[in-house]
């Protein structure tokens, strides 16, 4: 049972002692994102690289899982929401410390609850099965150790089971096909053998019913589109955008509401770029958003002000994070938040407070991981 009075008191306190906030543009309902000294995940600073949200204990609240370590072994954790974004209970995920870059939540064994897959750098990647109450058991290893940088979940071969896509910097990227029982013996590669792929998004870009892949490549390699041929197979890649730009993140949405899937690339020392899809697997046009000196390491999409147009949040390193509000005229209004020395490697968006608005969680490397609650701007 929720204590309503305590919840209201907590949110009022949050408004009074907020550390960071920003205001949405006047083009839409005005919102602000607020954090304070209690809106953190634990008291320690970790080398966090990824955070994901989902109801892992089945109580109706959205919980969080954080992957820590990057190149150095650290403990991963699950944080349990005690209602209204209060994460007062945490449990370690597994026994071993590891070099974790990625975590993903999905029902991998088909039993109706969310399991966890963890992607590690040059260490075994793992699947943890959920007992339905948020207690996890190590289930299996995934493939051989490789240079994992991100993990994505999708039904790639159309068999109804959630598969795992691993991007591996400087090594072949891999797809592990789920047998329906969280077994991943069958696999294949995608992209070229020496891609510096940091992230991948899955969407049907040419509207043929097969999933396609969008690769975010670093080290001045061209970003690529791989069109799906069905049954987990992909055509050779088609480059898009400027080849001299290094990208670290990609997310998809129909930003211009024309019925075709678009995508936004998070770039290093370049403006982030939205590519508007033509519905045929190509690019109709592109739009730069933000500074030409942006250092974006992660991106997530949500309609933060509930105006019917998808916005996106960019997690940055060495500069403030930012939300790009999608305006009626087709432009984007950039609003910065957080600290200027942030090192944001991971971001996720979810309604943590139960008010129907998407909140933001930032996974920082060597800084505390922080929650930013989405609140309306108070009228004077």
From TrEMBL:
Q: Where is the signal peptide?
A: 1-26
Name under which the protein is recorded: FG-GAP repeat protein
PANTHER family annotated for this entry? MAM DOMAIN-CONTAINING PROTEIN, SENSOR KINASE-RELATED
Q: Which SUPFAM superfamilies match?
A: Integrin alpha N-terminal domain
What keywords sit in the KW lines? Signal
Q: Which InterPro entries match?
A: FG-GAP, Integrin_alpha_N
